[in-house]
Amino acid sequence: MKGEIWTLMFVATVQPLLTIGRQTEDLSPQHEITWGRPNSETAYFDDDTDMNVTAVVGKQARLPCRVINLDKKDVSWIRQRDLHILTVGILTYTSDDRFKVFHPEDSDDWYLEISPVTFRDAGVYECQVSTSPKIFLPVSLAVEVQQARINGPKEVFIQNGSTIKLMCVVNTHSENVGQVTWFRDSAELDYDSPRGGVSLEIEKTPERTTSKLFLTRALKGDSGNYTCAPQFAQAASVLVHVVNGEESAAVQTANSVTLRSNPQGMCWALVALFLYLGSW
Question: In this predicted structure, what is the pLDDT of residue 245?
Fold first, then answer.
């Protein structure tokens, strides 16, 4: 008798936990998953809801869930990876304050907002409605990084007195890259830079942002590490050397010998280059 009572208590305690985040392949007649029925009085999900969302690291992700005929039922968001309940209604049930619900007044929308997004946030989230049986909508979140890229090699040599021209490209995703700032070492470069002769061009399209930096009449003091730093993307850098005529010839000789794969000639060319650089 005691064994039978213990069995009943165990089932009553565990069974509700098993219904949270139930997978589509783990069904039973008692817990058949339904998506709701349009044109009825029961709650159902909007068929036009986007179930695949892409977000950028460091920005906000907004996962959609639109429930029709909700009435007095509760909407919850569950993280499928660990079946963690994130929100119920407009209340947050996690200590991670990056998660919250955005529910516009008098609307059918219950967005899960994550801000800022990290790589670990990628995965599947479930929007659940407390109908009987429960209905749920899985929404997949992909997380990407926006990366700046400066065209050309990572190290460039510019003739003294010529114009330094650098072009930075960022392929955008769901968010803008924000303001793009250029630096030489730690000094910001813009129209008001004390050096003078600095100009910037920027072009933005839905697919990419392009920023161009121009420095006229380059001097040896313009040598350094140049960085393109978008506000919402990873920065990119290039090392710039401003050289005079003899040094430029030595660099070209070294590059030419490298292409011919002649180790002895390359050594002599590098020696010549170091001698010229030592005279700076």
Answer: 66
